[in-house]
Amino acid sequence: MKKTLLVLLCLITLSGWAQKSQVESAALYFNNAEMEDAKKAIDAAFEHPDTKDNVKMLYYRAAIYDTIATSKDEKVRKLDIDAAEKWALAAKRCLELDKKEIYKEQIEYNIVNAAFACNSAAYEASQRSDYKKIQSYYQLVIDLLPYDKNGDMKTNNLTEKSIVFNQFYFANKEKIKEDQKKYLKRLIELDYQDHLIYAYLTNIYLEEGDTNTAISYLEKGRTLFPEKKDLIGQEINIYIAQNKLDILMQKVELANEQKPEDPDLIYTRGNLYDNAATGFVKEIKKYKEEAAAINKKAKIEKNVATKKQLEAQAKDLSTKVMELNKKAAQYQSKAEADYFKAIDLNPDMIDAYYNLGALTNNKTTAIAEKINAIDAKTQTEYDKKFNAYKKVQDSIFSVAIAQFEKVIEIAEVKSEKTAEDKAIKYAYLKDAYYSLQLIYAGMKNENKSNEYRAKKEEVIINSKKKG
């Protein structure tokens, strides 16, 4: 029994010595630039319980995987695709266990380089569409941030805010909602100043059917960024969908009372009236179609009682149409007044001009319906009625044209310094040119319509050019 125990103890001692020998072998191979053998030796030492937490082993593991990750020799780099991760983890563990601070100075410098390598590895993982590796590499960079004593990572914009934003970007790209929410919420905790965080969270919870949570994030965003149109638009859409227009009106009116001369708030109120009017117009169209279908049925219905019932339903719908027409007209008038007031306070408010142009142009729809419904016994009578309507329609078109031309005037002097600036500028120009193309088509002015079509197409081409 004693002899067996002695043999067992000898085997354990020899095993431990063998693993320490692996560390020495790894160091020797490393110093001789024999990276494949160095990797094999250090991996064997890392996987063995006797040396997995050996400080010297961790130091050399970090050094070996540093060399593999950053080698200019492609053959060496291919030794391990996850070299940056293993480098970072070894350096971090070495610092944690190096109580005597034998390797402290070297590793503190090394670990920052490991963080940069992990950041680059995350990008490389994105080229392979390896979502899990992207996120694990970014998380490693975050874990290494506390070791950046000299602020080198911060100087290179490697901060938790920027990294978490990248994590969200890829979660959003892959449409992984739970991760999207996790990273967006973390950005809020980090006080990341971007209203789109709240817009994204609102949309995610709306898609999941959790309207209450969506509204809670939207309200936080609106409090922090009261003038951002993305959030304003979301709020309008949510309350309209919930048929809570009165609540939304109260919120907007309260804001305007607090800042009565704020052009952005006035514009927002106008935009709300405008959107509400558009909603009424959609309802009007629906009720008109229903009424027409019921009237059609009523005309061929032979049962007197059923015929009267159908006629009564059509009449009720027509009454609703009249009421909604009145509401739509009132809201359009209020929107128009607010847009004009916003422009008075801020003559360069391009969105107000654009919305005015659209609102004005939409007034021609009612004239077009009257033209289509002209009832005349002779061509002379038809021409007389048509020309009267056409004169009114063209005068409205002329006003809309002037408003869209103002949009172009303001847009043309906008900056193109950044890609975002350029995209915004060309979007305004494209939309304004397209609107004018349609207006001139409506006026039967083919030459002008084609002119603005060509300008629109030119803008689309120029917007795609780099630089």
Task: Label the overall shape.
Answer: elongated
Q: Tally of extended strands? A: 0
CATH topology of the largest domain: Serine Threonine Protein Phosphatase 5, Tetratricopeptide repeat
- Please give the largest β-sheet: none
Percentage of residues in DSSP E strands: under 5%
The domain tally reads 4
Corresponding CATH architecture of the largest domain: Alpha Horseshoe
Structural class: mainly alpha
State the assembly state of the protein chains.
single chain
Which segments are poorly predicted (pLDDT under 50) over 5 or more consecutive residues? 1-19
Task: Walk me through the topology.
Elements: H1 2-31, H2 35-47, H3 55-70, H4 74-77, H5 83-97, H6 104-127, H7 131-144, H8 152-155, H9 160-173, H10 177-189, H11 196-207, H12 211-224, H13 229-241, H14 245-258, H15 263-300, H16 304-345, H17 350-362, H18 364-372, H19 379-412, H20 419-442, H21 446-464
Helix pairs in contact: 1-2, 1-3, 2-3, 3-5, 3-6, 5-6, 6-7, 7-9, 9-10, 10-11, 11-12, 12-13, 13-15, 14-15, 15-16, 16-17, 17-19, 18-19, 19-20, 20-21
Provide an overview of this structure.
The protein has 467 residues and is mainly alpha-helical. The protein has four domains: 19-158, Alpha Horseshoe (Serine Threonine Protein Phosphatase 5, Tetratricopeptide repeat), CATH 1.25.40; 161-243, Serine Threonine Protein Phosphatase 5, Tetratricopeptide repeat (Alpha Horseshoe), CATH 1.25.40.10; 244-347; 349-467, no CATH class. Helices cover 81% and strands 0% of the residues. It has helices at 2-31, 35-47, 55-70, 74-77, 83-97, 104-127, 131-144, 152-155, 160-173, 177-189, 196-207, 211-224, 229-241, 245-258, 263-300, 304-345, 350-362, 364-372, 379-412, 419-442, 446-464. Helix 12 runs antiparallel to helix 13 (229-241) and helix 16 packs antiparallel against helix 17 (350-362). The longest helix has 42 residues, at 304-345. 33% of the residues are buried. Residues 1-19 have low confidence and may be disordered.
